[in-house]
Amino acid sequence: MKKTYERIVETRDTAEHINSGDVVWIGGTEGTAADFLAALVQRRDELENVTLLVVTDDKPNASLDTLRHCGGFRVLSFYKDAITESYRESNNSERYEFVTSPAVKAIGLVCRHYNVNTMVLPVCQPGRENRFAVSAAQALSAEIVSSCPTVTKRIALVDYKLKATGTSLPMDSFDVIGLNGDFKTRDIFDNSQETKPAAEAAA
């Protein structure tokens, strides 16, 4: 795992870590996630066979709508389309366990069916304890997605508008950390424990 400060990029540059053939789970479409999707739109002519499993909200997203109509992208709204299509494509419907309470329980089912290899998660800005605050639902879904055996890339999108909660995830859970524009929390990363000389010497 790279040191934290070596993994920081601008949010729009996190899309550079998506490759043709990737299956990407995106935990939201607002804020920094919208910036990530907009950056994917800019790469639509160079990427092929990319599947996006997206946790959509109630607001329309122009970038997502554009990607839905790009030949190189397949977009599935997580809580409806992906589960329905997974069931339809299966030769053995008994393989799937459908639930009627918290939809988050179906995440593992869908991610394994599509062989998700990349997780993209909006998170609150970090604290000095080297952790990102997230909602309880985000933490649970991140744990489920991240534990899928096919997942090899984990991308955090720092969203300054998200409200911090009591639940958090360690920075080291992510391979890439996306920050907006002026890197206004860069000092937190540069002063984090793992960047101190003693920690670097031990790495």
Describe this entry's structure for a reader.
29% of the residues lie in helices and 20% in strands. By secondary structure, the chain is of the alpha/beta class. The chain has a single domain (4-202), classed as Glutaconate Coenzyme A-transferase (3-Layer(aba) Sandwich), CATH 3.40.1080. The chain has a seven-stranded parallel β-sheet with strand order 1-9-7-5-2-3-4, sandwiched between helices. A two-stranded antiparallel sheet has the order 6-8. Helix 3 crosses helix 4. The radius of gyration is 17 Å and the shape is globular. The chain starts with 7 loop residues before the first strand and ends with a helix. Residues 93-102 and 191-203 have low confidence and may be disordered.
Task: Give the number of helices.
Answer: 7
Overall geometry? globular
N-C termini distance = 10 Å
Number of strands: 9
Look at the helices and sheets and give the structural class. Answer: alpha/beta
State the order of secondary-structure elements, H for helix, E for strand: EEHEHEHHEEHEEEHH
Compute the number of structural domains. 1
Give me the CATH superfamily.
Answer: Glutaconate Coenzyme A-transferase
Q: How many strands, what sense, and barrel or not for the largest sheet?
A: 7 strands, parallel
CATH third-tier fold name: Glutaconate Coenzyme A-transferase
The overall average pLDDT, rounded, is 76
CATH architecture: 3-Layer(aba) Sandwich
> How would you classify the quaternary structure?
single chain
Unreliable parts: 93-102, 191-203
Strand content: 15-25%
Give the helix level as a range of percent. Answer: 25-40%
Radius of gyration: 17 Å
Task: Strand order, main sheet: write it out.
Answer: 1-9-7-5-2-3-4
CATH top-level class: Alpha Beta
